[in-house]
Amino acid sequence: MENTLRKVFIGKVDEMPLRLGKTIVIDDKEIAVFKLANGDIRAIQNRCPHKGGVLAEGMVSGEHVFCPMHDWKISIVDGQVQAPDEGCVETYKVEVDQNNVYINLAN
Amino acid sequence: MGKQKLILIGNGMAGVRAIEEILKLLPDQFDITVFGKEPYPNYNRIQLSKVLQGDTEISDITINEWEWYEENNIRLYPGETVTTINKKEKFVETDKGRKEEYDYLIIATGSNPFMIPLPGVDKEGVTAFRDIKDCEKMIEYSNKYKRAAVIGGGLLGLEAARGLLNLGMEVDVIHISDYLMERQLDKAAGKLLQKELEAQGMKFLLEKETVEITGKNRVTGLKFKDGGKIPADLVVMAVGIKPNVQLAADNGIEVNRGIVVNDYMETSEANIFAVGECAEHDQMVYGLVAPLYEQGQALAKRICGMNHQGYKGSVLSTQLKVSGVDVFSTGQINETNVTKSIKVFDEWRGTYKKILVEDEKITGAVLFGDTQEGNRLLSLIKQKANIEEYLESESSEDSGESLVASMSDEELICGCNGVTKGTIVEAINAKGLSTVDEVKGATNASRSCGTCKSLVSDLLEHTLGDAFEADQKESICTCTELSRDEVIAEIKEKGLTHTREVMHVLEWKTEEGCSKCKPALNYYLGMVNPTEYEDEKESRFVNERMHANIQNNGTYSVVPRMYGGVTNSDDLRKIADVADKYEVGMIKLTGGQRIDLLGVKKEDLPSVWKDLDMPSGHAYAKSVRTVKTCVGANFCRFGTQDSVGMGIQIEKKFEGLNTPHKVKMGVSACPRNCAEGGVKDVGVIGLDGTWEIHVGGNGGTELRQAELLTKVKTEEEVLEYIGAYLQYYRENAKYLERTSAWVERVGIAHVQEVVEDQFLRNELNERLDEALSVYKEPWNETNNDETVLKDLFEKVHATAISK
């Protein structure tokens, strides 16, 4: 089966809060979108693999977010949970065009 | 891609543990089905002896409740046995005719109790001691009958016997060897154990071989090889277990004593694994729980396709779970012609210790009566340590009893995260850990409620011996070597103004810090420079950024301010309306006499606050929380002062003050102390003409009684002394250090000295007033700031537009 991508507009670059997460809902998916200190915008599943904590509300440090529930440290870039915990969250492709931010979702 | 199908045969501790490990690694990868012979969810089999001994209930030993299976989308078929494995077409069939396909199969069929095939073994009243059913049968028999015979004087037999004694039965233990627990103990220790258990009321028939179980339908007694016999109404057969390999053997999987597995728990057949008591690794079959965890990890990593060094076998230790008897053994038990032994036998105290040494290495130990050293010896054996190392540490040890020493490896140190002593000790040894923080980082122990920190510290001391330094310089977190005091000194000296600057100038090891140092620095910067510092929302923990308490499902709770715990009909009406309008999940009274609205959605928070039109109760903040009050002199017939009025004044004055940790207060109007000031950070007690101020109490994780700071005459003085005390705490405590820990650390006498000094007291109050001067009510402020509303509280609903 061929994979198709859906491109979803989620907001403007300059309206994204710096070093904070934002909750984006697309259909039944919750996505946490972060604008990192270096200006990169990244998107991951808004659900910690531990107990389902909302990652958009986590504390952001560099390229990592700390889950607000039990402080799991998760990479915003590749979705990997950092030691000593284990697991990963889904990551989503972000596309920036001028001032517009899109997420590419696989169908 | 569809999920891969994973089937577990055997719903016991080993198999389910392996599933847990897999879920940790790849929560959504597998479609999991579990078949279990017993009609229960996974329970802690080792605790059965405690159930029998009456220390706990069957319902308390469940490890995974039914809901756990549901939450993880695991199909559980309890009371259903797998009868066939079709390796070629990769499916299993059950006794109920069900057929399920698999990609991966885990066999965790455990062991069966070994029943000696004696004549009469099938009579009513003969049981093994292996599962809940056996346990219930024994309890049932103890209600009807008097005499029990336990065949087998090993670990299991003795635990069963002790249980039956507790159930009021007379118990004979029949054992074939000439002393008890001969596989774990030497003769000297075995004899001591026998004496102790005889004193508890057990009877022993040693060197007896049972040849027949007598009786018609129901058992009435035992007959021995030497011609002797005894009467018995219940016979418990506890002579050992044998791995349950039938299913594997029947289906062409390689079996020796157990199902043969490699370091990754893989059997001879592709995609079929075995774990736990049914598995044989490196010619060893383990009948204890400890190896299961390591085996489960190795298996999980393999199935999830991740690197792992594999399972390398376990060094075992044994502890008998019989109250009042301390027995420990590990490694080699009996002397050979190449071992040397160290023996200490104290007949008076009834203690015995034997350590076996081979080529200068400790190879085994047996302890009786005093087992404190057990775990240390175990870790020395695991480390292959030299005997001299042990002897040196022994001679320098003080006689202080350590709780952690007497705990077994399987016992939990950290209840929140399920970290056992064994795991911690192993991490300390394997990774060379030396601080509580490092242990936390490596194992998760003490990460949640922190109550176990002192245990972890003891354990470090216990494991490292002399190498442990209790009085370590505590750095803020692992991003820096600097301590709290050093960082604050640098902030002041260099005039640092925001967290990133601190991290940059003071050469943090990480670029943007971590969840520990960010909020700490944010607090310290604000404390040092209250009027200039701009609070960083991104350096605040979620609750303080959102001004509400996050709950386990991502909703929030809202607690409006009610000064002194006093409310009125208008506020209550408003609260009721808000609860209806926003469909609040639960309305609850808090421990601090406030009303909590739980289950509010993030995006609803601002309008909930607007509708309430009440100030924030700061129930979420590291700040002054609530002042709990008793009814006081206006209504109470015992009240001597207006505690409500005093409480309201205190709350209004210190409302919203940022502190290193939360500050809870109470004001009572007489020594009955109904506002429970004895366990508050500040507890005020009104007496006739006097107010007492108590400080440093805590009713939470570390229970601590507040100590008297001072006695004063007027309400103004109460505010003045509390002000000085709080400011001194703000300026001197570590971030996240409660007043209880802080007062304990610096001593109440020192705090008294400071606040009793008029000059210092005035200065402290001046700085406090400066800090209070910048306070803005957060709910109202948020509602007036469009950017904050959009940045933090908005949930964007996006839809696809193209492609």
TrEMBL record, chain A:
User: One matching Pfam family, short form?
Assistant: Rieske
Q: Which residues form the Rieske domain?
A: 8-103
Top-level division of the source organism's lineage: Bacteria
Q: Which PANTHER family match?
A: 3-PHENYLPROPIONATE_CINNAMIC ACID DIOXYGENASE FERREDOXIN SUBUNIT, FERREDOXIN-RELATED
Q: What is this protein called?
A: Nitrite reductase (NADH) small subunit
Instruction: Enumerate the InterPro entries for this protein.
Output: Rieske-like_NirD (IPR012748), Rieske_2Fe-2S (IPR017941), Rieske_2Fe-2S_sf (IPR036922)
Species of origin reads: Saliterribacillus persicus
Name any Gene Ontology BP term. Answer: nitrate assimilation
Q: Which PROSITE patterns match?
A: RIESKE
Q: Which UniProt keywords apply?
A: 2Fe-2S, Iron, Iron-sulfur, Metal-binding, Nitrate assimilation, Oxidoreductase
Under the GO molecular function aspect, what terms does this record hold?
2 iron, 2 sulfur cluster binding; metal ion binding; monooxygenase activity; nitrite reductase [NAD(P)H] activity; oxidoreductase activity, acting on paired donors, with incorporation or reduction of molecular oxygen
Which CDD domains does this one have? Rieske_NirD_small_Bacillus
- Carries keyword Metal-binding? yes
UniProtKB/TrEMBL annotation, chain B:
State the pathway, as annotated in the record.
Nitrogen metabolism; nitrate reduction (assimilation)
Task: Give UniProt keywords alphabetically.
Answer: 2Fe-2S, 4Fe-4S, FAD, Flavoprotein, Heme, Iron, Iron-sulfur, Metal-binding, Nitrate assimilation, Oxidoreductase
The GO terms this record gives for MF are:
2 iron, 2 sulfur cluster binding; 4 iron, 4 sulfur cluster binding; flavin adenine dinucleotide binding; heme binding; metal ion binding; NADP binding; nitrite reductase activity
Domain Nitrite/Sulfite reductase ferredoxin-like residue range list = 551-613
Q: NCBIfam families annotated for this entry?
A: nitri_red_nirB (TIGR02374)
What name does the UniProt record give this protein?
Assimilatory nitrite reductase (NAD(P)H) large subunit
GO biological process, any: nitrate assimilation
What Pfam families is this protein classified in? Fer2_BFD, NIR_SIR, NIR_SIR_ferr, Pyr_redox_2, Rubredoxin_C
All residue ranges annotated as the Nitrite/sulphite reductase 4Fe-4S domain in the record? 621-759
From which lineage does this chain's organism come? Bacteria, Bacillati, Bacillota, Bacilli, Bacillales
Protein's organism = Saliterribacillus persicus
Q: Identify the residues that the record assigns to the FAD/NAD(P)-binding domain, covering every copy.
A: 5-283
Q: What range(s) does the NADH-rubredoxin oxidoreductase C-terminal domain occupy? A: 317-384
Q: Which residues bind siroheme?
A: C674
Please tell me where [4Fe-4S] cluster binds in this chain.
Answer: C630, C636, C670, C674
Q: Which cofactor does it need?
A: siroheme; FAD; [4Fe-4S] cluster; [2Fe-2S] cluster
Q: Which InterPro entries match?
A: BFD-like_2Fe2S-bd_dom, BFD-like_2Fe2S-bd_dom_sf, FAD/NAD-bd_sf, FAD/NAD-binding_dom, FAD/NAD-linked_Rdtase_dimer_sf, NasD-like, NiRdtase/SiRdtase_haem-b_fer, Nit/Sulf_reduc_fer-like_dom_sf
Every copy of the BFD-like [2Fe-2S]-binding domain together lies at 412-461, 476-525
